[in-house]
Amino acid sequence: QLQLVESGGGLVQPGGSLRLSCAASGSTLDYYAIGWFRQAPGKEREGVSCISSSGGSTTYANSVLGRFTISRDNTKNTVYLQMNSLKPEDTAVYYCAAARTAVQNMCVMTRSFFASWGQGTQVTVSS
């Protein structure tokens, strides 16, 4: 059974950077699209970014476009989210999620698309 573990969160000043990792175990990620979501206190969980199983298709929320970059290393069974120019409004718990897909360039950045979820990692952007 696929299990996901996020890491790399922490406290960072506005304008700083963090790299989140989503490490998988129990199955290879070769056939899974991976999404990153976040949930701030009192708000709904929202999609941040998504990468297809092949890595050939990526999607970003408008709020992070140009600042965040999603990537994957299937040899390490890990997906990354590089976050630059962080803002206080990026503060949230960040979750990664996996969806097994038959289409290699497909990733849909909605919660219902994903079947497996990690426990989350806290990101706090504050001076």
Question: What are the defining features of this structure?
Answer:
7-stranded mixed sheet; 0% helix; globular
Textual characterization of the structure:
The model has no long low-confidence stretch (mean pLDDT 96). The N and C termini lie far apart (40 Å). 35% of the residues are buried. The protein has no helices and 11 strands. It has 127 residues and is mostly beta strands. Strand 5 (46-51) and strand 6 (58-60) form a beta hairpin. The strands form 2 sheets. Strands 2, 4, 5, 6, 9, 10 and 11 form a 7-stranded mixed beta sheet that branches. 0% of the residues lie in helices and 48% in strands.
Helix content: under 10%
Shape: globular
Oligomer: single chain
Number of helical stretches of at least 4 residues: 0
Question: β content, as a range?
Answer: over 45%
Low-confidence parts: none
- Kindly report how far apart the N and C termini lie: 40 Å
What class do helices, strands and sheet pairing give? mainly beta
Mean pLDDT: 96
Radius of gyration: 13 Å
| Major sheet | 7 strands, mixed
Sequence of secondary-structure elements? EEEEEEEEEEE
Number of strands: 11
